[in-house]
Amino acid sequence: MDVTTRALMLKATDYGENDKFILLYSLEYGKISVHAKGIRKSGAKLKFAADQFCFGQYELAQNGDRFTLKTCQQIESFYALRQDITVYYAACVIAECLVNYTEEEQQESQLFIQTLKALQALTDGCEPLLVVLRYLLGFTKTEGFGLQFGNCVVCDRPTDKVYLDLQRGGLVCKECRTAESTALGAQVVGACTLVENMPYSRLKNINLTLEILKDALTMMYRYIAHSFSPLKSLIELLKLS
Ligand SMILES: [Zn+2]
Q: What is the whole-number distance in angstroms between the Cα of residue 25 and the centre of ligand 1?
C-alpha cells in the first residue's frame, strides 16, 4: 500500500552500501522510520529527502509497519537552519525532543504544527534561545508533563516564590520545598509565564536578556533530564550562547 504524508526529516542513518534509514516526523503518522534505498548513490535524485530538516510531501510504500521511500516533493528545505551554528543547535534541540521523547506512529497534529512554527521562527531570525524556550514549554505541556508556574505541585496553592523540586516532578512553594529544591529567580518565572502561551509570530517583540534565557533553559534542561534522557544539543546550545 502506498501512503503520502507531510513530514520533517529528523535524523538519517547510513544502512548497507547505498541506503539510509531516515526518521521522519509526519503529520499523519507521527514519528516513522523509512528505508531510503539507493539514496547514497552518486546522482541519487532523492538525496535532498534525507537532508536534516527537509520538509516535504513524502510518498512511501507501506508493508505492515515498514515504510520505504518512493518519492518526495520538497515543500521547504529549511536550509537557513544549517547556516548559523547557534540556529542549527536550536533546531537540533527541537529535533532531539521528537527523536527522544515521542512514540513511533503516534499522530500528534498540534505538536507537528508547533514544530514547524518553531523552525520557521528560527529561520525568520528570532532569538534562538527564546524559540527553544517557547518550544520546550509547549512540548512538555503537549506531552503531559508541563510545569505549572503559578501553583505549587504539592499543595496546589498559588505561590509567588517558586522552587524546582525534581523529586516531586515540578515547582513547589516555600512551605512544600525540601533540602533538594532550588529557588527560581522571579525573572526566570516571569519569562516562562510570559513566553509559554505566546504565538511564535509574536516572539520577535519579546526582549529578554541572554542571562535570563540561559537560566530558564538550564532549569528546563534539569527538569527534562531528571525524568528522561538529557537533551545533549541543549547543552551545546548553552555553551555557544
Ligand atoms: Zn506547596
A: 38
Between CA 218 and CA 214 the distance in angstroms is: 6
Strands 66-76 and 30-36: parallel
pLDDT at 109: 96
Ligand 1 centroid to 172 CA: how many Å?
A: 5
pLDDT, residue 150, reads 87
Q: How far apart are CA 192 and CA 162, in angstroms?
A: 12
pLDDT on residue 32: 97
pLDDT at 65: 86
171 CA from centroid of ligand 1 (Å): 9
Give me the pLDDT at residue 55, please. Answer: 98
Distance 175 CA to ligand 1 centre (A): 6
Low-confidence residues of the chain: pLDDT under 70:
none
Distances (CA, A) of 3 to 17, 34, 57: 26, 12, 10
pLDDT of residue 160: 85
- What is the CA(224)–ligand 1 centre distance, in A? 21
CA 166 to ligand 1 center in whole angstroms:
14
Please report, as a single letter, which amino acid is at residue 200. Answer: Y
The domain 2-76 is placed in CATH, from the list 2.40.50.140, 1.20.58.1190, 3.40.50.720, 1.20.120.640, at 2.40.50.140
CATH 2.40.50.140: which residues of the chain? Answer: 2-76
Report the C-alpha gap between 87 and 75 in whole angstroms: 20
* Fold of domain 80-240: de novo design (two linked rop proteins) (1.20.1440)
